[in-house]
User: Fold this.
Amino acid sequence: KRKLMFEKIEGWEMDYPHRLPYRKIYRAAKGFKEELGKGGFGSVYKGLLPRSGIEVAVKRVSHGSKQGMREFVAEVSSLGRTRHRNLIQLH
Assistant:
């Protein structure tokens, strides 16, 4: 039996970080079908958060990335400290 939990995100909460599981990110990005661009670590895809209807950009790391894991971790760390209403928190 699957337990479903739905959380309503209030407007003021959008200014704070929240966590999303991979399956929700995959669904939001519609299976990573609509590519917006490419970066050093991989591609960026258009996504839509189903509950809020908010459009998001989802960065997906490529296994063939020319940049190393140290650089990737540095970028994630930097983005993780960035606070902006249009960015979700990275964990």
In short: The two ends are 28 Å apart (CA to CA). The first strand starts at residue 35 and ends at 38. The chain has a mean pLDDT of 75.
